[in-house]
Amino acid sequence: MSEIREDNARDPEQLRRMREAKEKGLCYFCELRPKAFDPGIVHFGKHWFSRKNDFPYEGSVHHYLVISRGHITKLEEIENNSTHELFNVFRYLETALGAPGGSIFLRFGDMAYTGATLDHLHFHFLVG
Fold this sequence. Notes:
Elements: H1 12-23, H2 28-32, E1 41-44, E2 48-52, E3 62-68, H3 83-97, E4 103-107, H4 111-114, E5 122-127
Antiparallel strand pairs: 1-2, 2-3, 3-5, 4-5
């Protein structure tokens, strides 16, 4: 189960979903993982899955999350053999979205420092 940092939530629905998962003893991102046929999921691999962010940052044209399938919170927990797949996900998103440019950032570790709402290592893929 993952911890939630409620003061970092941007949307009441986002917080509701995370609380609901926590009440079931689950991490919200881990709960999303089994839904490989969820239309929001654009990549479902051995180590990573990617989905459109239901709560995109204001001003973004595209906002996708790339989430570790295993429940990890720190960089040292990323499996070395998973990074090739990770960069293939980034390349896929760039091509599929026709992104002329964008940003990728990673949330990991202590949520008091990262601004994350959920304690589960994940990347944000942002365009515009």
